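Thread: assembly with ligand

MN 10:42: here's the input set. Chains plus the small molecule as SMILES. Want everything predicted jointly, not piecewise.
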Amino acid sequence: MKGESVTVHRLAKRYGSVTAVEDVSVDVKPGEFLSLLGPSGSGKTTLLMMIAGFELPTAGLVKIGATDITHVAPNKRNVGMVFQKYALFPHMSVNDNVGFPLRMRKMDRAQIQRRVREALAMVQLDAYGSRMPCQLSGGQQQRVALARALVFEPPVLLMDEPLGALDKKLREQLQIEIKTLQQRLGVTVIYVTHDQEEALTMSDRIAVMDSGQIAQIGSPASLYRAPTSPFVAEFIGKMNFLPVEYLGPAKTGPQIRVSNTSTVSVTRSLNGHDMELSPGLSLLAAIRPENISLTARGAGGQDAIAGTVYTSIFLGTHQILLVNIDGSSSPPLHIQMPASRDLSALARGDAVDIVFQTSAIHLFPGRGDGQ
Ligand SMILES: Nc1ncnc2c1ncn2[C@@H]1O[C@H](COP(=O)(O)OP(=O)(O)OP(=O)(O)O)[C@@H](O)[C@H]1O
Ligand SMILES: [Mg+2]
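BT 11:07: finished. Tokens for the full assembly:
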């Protein structure tokens, strides 16, 4: 089996006045693992269903390889599909479930038997062929669904929250299994999830969806390091946000006021936003917990921000500290540092210096507080 490219061009779906998917274009490479990540109602399932052929688009087209399949029936698209609910046929044995797509394709019996055996071996269920679905655990049922989706060797596999009904440990185990299998088979996968860790673990690229559109698409690392909007910044990883004021340029970079008493210089400009900065402008600054550190009050240098410890949480390898910026009404900053004796000694009310890694500060237009 070899993966094929999937091309989605200006795809849209409207239900009456509801726009579920709006003008989405994406090229998925052969053998690529693409995740659609986004909050509930952002259009992930609708987009996947149009690629599968279960929903007809209002506008746009879908291609597999060079073939336009926009108006081809689902069972003629040669696409495997796994849903969140196991969707196995309850009255059929595991063997019959997995063999179903092959019987539909009128393959001969000996060949079906061989293919079913291979597919079940692939998901480590060789010994379960004669069981009924109700005699399997959730994880086993989902492996059978995966075997059934792959048994006819489709070049494209679509999955809609396939691990959503499983507990965390099993989910993490199956994430690795699916990823390993996908790489071995070279099949192109489009995978819907609203779990950012799952998307980061499995994907070559992630498309973050917001209100029916792709807010940003890129590798896990590029989305993490260079989000182009507060929405994406917040959706991938943990991010601190604080409203700041632009003061003007300085030798060390643009100066921003973080609180009544503290200013910081930033060594990068606005993330992908082309706008004129004029002194007095309100901006939204964003910084990740691991890009902030703490020192004793007075030891943080020129760009340090005066702060007061709110909570300190010891987590083995690292320490999470919630620290309020003095003279600011923003929620406490979330700071993550390697655990140390000095840090564990910090207690609520201690005065500290907060130091931002200035190259890791993201700036976005607007204050983010509705003003
Ligand atoms: N058959 C339908 N009729 C009307 N509106 C629909 C229909 N199907 C989906 N929608 C709407 O389209 C939008 C996108 O829905 P969709 O199911 O694609 O979201 P999703 O990202 O998969 O969400 P979830 O994470 O909850 O599964 C929602 O506002 C939803 O209410
Ligand atoms: Mg959905």
